[in-house]
Amino acid sequence: MEVIISAIDFVSNALWSYILIYTLIPVGLYFTFKLRFAQFTYFKHMFKLITEGVVTTDKNQNHVSSFGAFTISSASRVGTGNLAGVAIAIFMGGAGAVFWMWLLAIIGAASSMIENTLAQVYKKKNEDGTYRGGPAYYMKQGLGLNWMGTTFSILITISFGLIFNSVQANTIARAFEGAFEVNPIIIGIVLSVLTSVIIFGGLKRIVSFTQVIFPAMAGIYLIAAFFVIITNITELPSVMNHIIKEAFGMEQAATGAFAFMVMQGIKRGLFSNEAGMGSTPNAGATAEVSHPVKQGFIQTLGVFVDTLLISSATAFVILVTNVHKTTEGLNGIQLTQMAMNNALGEAGTIFIAVIVLLFSFSSIIGNYYYGESNIEYMTKSKLALNTFRAAVILMVFFGTTASLKLVWNLADIFMGLMALLNITALIMLRKIAFEVYYDYINQLKKGLNPIFHKKTIKSLKDVDSWDDEHTKLHSQHNNSK
Questions:
Q1: d(CA 153, CA 137)
Q2: Residues 280 and 77: beta-carbon distance below 8 Å
Q3: Residue 256 Rama label (left phi>0; alpha psi -120 to 50; beta)
Q4: Closest C-alpha to 81, from 262, 315, 268
C-alpha cells in the first residue's frame, strides 16, 4: 500500500509542479485579454442575470433557471475545498498560498466564462425538457473528437462522482470525529443513505435540494466567519501584510519553497473554484437562457463567490486566530475547526462540523450530477446509470475511513488531467467562444436583452438546442416586457 501511495504522490507533484502551473495562468491571462477583462467590467451585470427566471409558458417543461444552474455548480464548488482545502494550502504552503489562490480565481474566471458559454452553445435537450451538456459535448460536437469527449467523461465521472465524493465524505467524518467523537463508520452509513435518497430522485430533486441548501449554508457560514474576523479586526492589517510578504518573499525563494507555495495556492484554488477544470459547464448547460453568454457570466460570478468570498473567509479566520502557527499536528478541516474553537469556544468546533456536513453533502450531490451527465453522454443504459449510483454510494462510505493524504492526492491527479484536457478544447474552440461572446456584448450595448441566433456564427456546426422555436420563444418574452 505504501508503494501505491508514494507513486500517487509522485504523479500528483509532477503533474502540478511541471505542467499545470505553467498552463492555467497563461491560458487564463490570454482569455482575460481577449474578453477585455469581462470578469471586471461586467461584474454588476452578473448579479442582474442571476435573478432571471425560466422563459416558458409550458408548465410541462422542467426547465432549470439561471439561479438553479448556479446553485448546482455552487453546491459542487462550495465544500471541502473552502474549509479543508484552504487550511491545507496554508498549512503546507504558508499564508502566501492564499494570494496565489486569489490570483487563480481572478484570472481563471475568464476560463470559466469560455467553458460555460461553450457548454450552453452545444447543450442537448433531454426527453423531459431539461438540458445536459459540458466539455464532453463541445469536444464531440464542436471539435468532432468523440474520443476526447469520451476520455473527459470517464475522467470527470471517476473524479467527481467517485474520488471527489470520497474527499467530501472524508472531511465530514473527520469534522464529526473531532467535534463529537463519532465513529467514521456510522457517519459513512448515514451519508450513504442520505445520498441514495437524493441521487435516485433525478435532476429536479437535485435542483430543489441545492436551491434551498446552498444560499442558507453559505449565508450562515459567512456570518460566523465575519464575526470572528471583526472581533479580531486589529490583526487584519498584519494578516494582509503577512499574505503579501510571503507571496513574494525572498525567504521562500531562497529556501526553494516559493514554487511549492504557488503550487499549493493554485491546487487548492482550482479544487475549490473549478475554473477551467471543465466541471461547472455540466451545470451551466442545464439552464434555460436566451443567450449562452448569460451562463458564462453567471458561472464566472460563482468563481468569485467561491474563492474571493467563502474561501477568503476561511483563510482570514485561520490567520487572524493564528492557529496555523500555534497548533501542531492539525491539518485540513480540523485546523479550521480549531480556529473557530479559539474564537467561539467549543461551539466553534461543533459549528464547523455542522457547516461541513451541509457544504460537503451538497458537494456530493453536485458532484454526482456531473458524473450522471457524463454517463448519459457515453450511454443511455439505465443499468450503467444505476451501477454508477451504487458506486457513488460505496465511495461515499469508503471516503469516511480512508487516509486524508491518499484521497487528496487522487483528487489532485484526476482534477489535473481533467483541466489539461478541457483547457486544450477551450483553446481549440476559442474563436467560436469569442464570436458568441461579442455577439452578446454587441446586442447588450444596443440596449437589447440578447437572444442567440445560431446562424449568426457561421462556423457553428452540430448545434441543435438553439432552433427557431427557441429563438421565437425568447423574442416573444422580450416583446411582452
A1: 9
A2: yes
A3: left
A4: 268
Closest by alpha carbon to 394, among 219, 195, 175? 195
Q: Are 50 and 298 in contact (CB under 8 A)?
A: yes
* C-alpha span between 186 and 173 (Å, rounded): 9
Burial 64-76 (b: 16+ CB within 10 A, else e): bbbbbbbbbbbbb
Tell me which residue of 342, 337, 352 sits closest to 322, measured CA to CA.
342
Q: What is the pLDDT of residue 133?
A: 92
The three grid cell numbers given for residue 446, joined into one nine-digit string: 444596443
Cell digits of residue 136? 464532453
Residues 6+ apart with CB under 8 A from 41: none
- For CA atoms 42, 46, 52, 55, the dihedral sign is positive
Q: Which three cell numbers stand for residue 375?
A: 454517463
Say if residues 149 and 135 touch (Cβ distance below 8 Å).
yes
Q: CA angle, corner 343, sides to 335 and 93, nearest 5?
A: 30
* CB-neighbour burial class of residue 295 (10 A; exposed 0-12, middle 13-18, buried 19+): buried
Residue 60's pLDDT is what?
A: 45
Q: How far apart are the C-alpha atoms of 186 and 441, rounded to whole Å?
A: 53
Cβ atoms of residues 83 and 333 within 8 Å: yes
* Residue 78, Cβ density class (10 Å: 0-12 exposed, 13-18 middle, ≥19 buried): buried
Residue 470, all three cell numbers: 427557441
Contact between residue 320 and residue 239 where contact means Cβ atoms under 8 Å apart: yes
Q: Which of 167, 169, 197, 196 is nearest to 184 (CA)?
A: 169
Report the C-alpha gap between 276 and 113 in whole angstroms.
Answer: 9
The amino acid sitting at 68 is G
Q: Alpha carbon of 415 to those of 66, 155, 381: distances in Å?
A: 26, 8, 26
At residue 268, φ and ψ (nearest 5 deg) are -70, -30
331 backbone dihedrals φ, ψ, rounded to 5°? -140, 165
Predicted confidence (pLDDT) per residue in 408-462, tens digit: 677 778 888 988 999 999 999 999 999 999 999 999 999 999 999 988 888 888 8
Secondary structure tally for the chain: helices H, strands E: 26, 2
Residues 89, 91: Cα–Cα separation, whole Å: 6
Q: Please name each of the domains of the chain with its CATH number.
A: 2-480 (1.20.1740)
Q: Tally Cβ neighbours within 10 Å of residue 195.
A: 22
Asked if 356 contacts 224 with a C-beta cutoff of 8 angstroms, the reply is no
Neighbours of 134 (CB within 10 A): 32
pLDDT in tens, 126-143: 887 788 899 999 999 999
Dump strand ranges (E) for 281-390: none
pLDDT tens track for 270-282: 666 778 888 889 8
